[in-house]
Amino acid sequence: FSEGLSQWTNPELVVTGLSAGIAGLQGMSNCIIKGRKSFFDGTKYTEKVLGQMKKGDFHGFPESVTAFESNGFITTIKGGDGIVREMLKIPGGYKGRKGFFEFIKEFDGTINHRLFNAEL
User: Fold this and answer.
1) Which superkingdom is the protein from (predicted)?
2) Bigger pLDDT: 104 or 56?
3) In what order do the strands lie in the sheet with 73-78?
4) What is the count of structural domains for the chain?
5) Which residues, in sequence order, are CB contacts of 69 under 8 Å at separation 6+?
6) What does the pLDDT look like over 67-88, one tens digit per residue?
7) Do the Cβ atoms of 26 and 32 come closer than 8 Å?
8) Which residues are within 8 A (CB) of 34 and not within 5 positions of it... i.e. 6 or more apart?
9) Which of 57, 66, 89, 119 is least buried, going by the fewest C-beta atoms within 10 A?
């Protein structure tokens, strides 16, 4: 666990950022609700995502981020191919930047997008 935290620039700020993000998300109809099945149940990462995670860039954030899924929200997105997919966005911080941890799940349960999307 401590190895994962060493990748974070300041864990206290991440928790603070998550708390602020949660307050801003209250009342949204697409928030994850207690008792709802986990976004990650029955999922696995694609080979593409596994390769990207090894690079150590904004794809390589600690897997422990998934434990904060209840602080995030799910939206649906329509890809250029016309397929609708679920996207989980978890507010937080990584490498000194604020933003969202993003996961996009395919219909078959594979996760083909895993990225920390930093605010500009």
Assistant:
1) Bacteria
2) 104
3) 44-45, 110-118, 97-105, 84-94, 73-78
4) 1
5) 32, 38, 39, 40, 88, 90
6) 999 999 999 999 999 999 999 9
7) no
8) 70
9) 119
CA 78 – CA 28 distance, rounded (Å): 20
For residue 10, what are the contacts with CB-CB under 8 A and spacing of at least 6?
93, 96
- Return the number of other C-beta atoms located less than 10 Å from residue 104's C-beta: 19
Distance, CA of 40 to CA of 66 (rounded, Å): 8
Query: Can you give the residue range of the structural domain that contains 38?
Result: 2-118
Q: Which of 12-16, 42-46, 73-77, 82-86 has the lowest mean pLDDT?
A: 12-16
State pTM to two decimals: 0.71
Percent pLDDT > 90 in the chain is 68
Is the Cβ–Cβ distance between 18 and 91 less than 8 Å? yes
Contact between residue 38 and residue 45 where contact means Cβ atoms under 8 Å apart: no
The mean per-residue pLDDT over the stretch 39-53 comes to: 97
